[in-house]
Amino acid sequence: MLATIRQNLTLKIISILVSIFMYIYVQADRNPMVTRLVIAAVHPINQPEGLEVEASQQQVEVNVTGPKALLDHLKDSSIRAIADLKGIQSADKKSALVRINFSCSTLPAQENAKLTYDSPIRSVNFQLFDQKRRDMLVTPLYTQAPPSGFQYGKPELHPARVTVFGRGDRLSRVEQLVVNASPTEAGEVIEGDFPISPRDTQNRFVDGVTISPDTVHVSVPLTELPSSRIVTVSAGVVDLPLPPYKLISVSVTPSQVKIEGKPAKINQIFTLLTEDISIRELTETKEFDASLISLPDINFRDVDGHPLNRVKVKITIGKSNPAVSGTVPPNEDPPAGQKTSAP
């Protein structure tokens, strides 16, 4: 059998080589190898936790060579310049030069192996940034005015404080976190979940930071605006001085106070009283610092609108003239059985 194989061995070898050559020629003619220039996006992988990276360039040019049938349907976005960041730590340095490898994200491994890549750029420099975090309060803003005669009450936010993550240079720009809260229908209370927006000192949006959670639930009641009116203040003097002293006058500063509350309540109030003031033991003029008697759901303010709950009360005391025979000093009842003489 071996002898049979050796017969015309040279011709057999030449026949095999010609067959292989013809197959390659036919295949190359039907599906030739071509080269195409594409723009590949730089795609970092295995990014260390707590580290943010920024490539010095986002795209690189690469010549892709492969069967024409594959390259005819190839999109630039399919080719990626893979940069493996495994093992890189910002604690070691502020930047790192990372070698890149090219691959097609839309082809299976078997087809991908048919492509070759040639690029003048084989490495990309990455800036390394430690990711920082801050806990911040959220501020609600109302994009719609309340209906006439009403006002928005105290808002409730859940959660009221959230965490912001990002590069230190970006995180330092965040001055406040705001939510633009609005009612589902005009004239209604505000109730719902709203996205949080990071803002700088000039109220510009700060990009590149992450907020967790990124929404908060906002509840804002709608309350009726209080009415106001001016009323007088009366000192709560409960007695008189003992003879021979007498009460000359009582003055209150301020003598008028603005009250605020629901119209049905304040329309029934004409005078405010101070706390009780006893002057029985007074023998001379004296000024008291007296509290106003509070009223439920009523606020007191001075004429300039400042909150007020105390006033000055001046009690002027005088002395009666020496008693004339048969007369009774003012503010004193005559003894039993004695009549007051005519003036």
What do these coordinates show?
There is one protein chain. With 343 residues, the protein is mainly β. It is built from 6 helices and 23 strands. Strands 1, 2, 3, 4, 5, 6, 7, 10, 11, 13 and 14 form an 11-stranded mixed sheet that branches. The protein has a 4-stranded mixed sheet with strand order 20-17-19-22. Strands 9-15-12 form a 3-stranded antiparallel sheet, with no helix packed on it. The chain has helices at 2-6, 9-30, 68-71, 109-112, 168-171, 263-266; strands at 33-45, 51-55, 59-67, 79-84, 95-104, 116-118, 123-142, 150-152, 156-158, 161-167, 176-181, 190-195, 197-199, 209-212, 215-220, 222-224, 227-237, 245-253, 256-261, 271-277, 286-291, 299-301, 310-319.
Briefly summarize what is shown:
With 343 residues, the protein is mainly β.
SSE run: HHEEEHEEHEEEEEHEEEEEEEEEHEEEE
What distance separates the N and C termini? 170 Å
How many strand units? 23
Count of alpha and pi helical runs: 6
As a whole number of angstroms, the C-alpha radius of gyration is: 46 Å
Estimate the mean pLDDT confidence: 84
Helix content: 10-25%
Shape: rod-shaped
Unreliable stretches covering 5 or more consecutive residues: 324-328, 330-343
Q: Report the major sheet.
A: 11 strands, mixed
What fraction of the residues are assigned to beta strands by DSSP? over 45%
SS-derived structural category: mainly beta
